[in-house]
Amino acid sequence: MESALTHKHSTIMKSGIDSYKRGYDEGREDGYKQGEEKGYHDGYEEGNEEGFNEGFRKGSNHGLFTGMIIGSFSVFLGIFVMTAVSRK
């Protein structure tokens, strides 16, 4: 009688341990998947934002520099033409 009870108790414990291991493995796998997806998503968003900011900064600087050169040349050309016209 005691041996049947011990056997039943042992079977219940083994079933509980197996359930725990299965739950642990499934939880760990789900955690890895969620972490990987979140990491990819966050990295993608951060990369897009950083790329946009960097592109905007470089584009603004380039546009400002180019605009200053063209504007300075236009002013110089205008002054030159005005001076040439006024001398005649």
Plain-language structure description:
With 88 residues, this protein is mostly helical. It has one domain. Helix content is 98%, strand content 0%. It has one helix and no strands. The chain has one helix at residues 2-87. It is rod-shaped. The mean pLDDT is 83.
Topology, element by element:
Blueprint: H1 2-87
Q: What is the chain-wise order of helices and strands?
A: H
Radius of gyration: 37 Å
Please tell me the overall pLDDT: 83
- Number of separate strands: 0
Largest sheet: none
Low-confidence stretches: none
Question: Characteristics of this structure?
Answer:
single chain; about 90 residues; mainly alpha; about 100% helix; about 0% strand
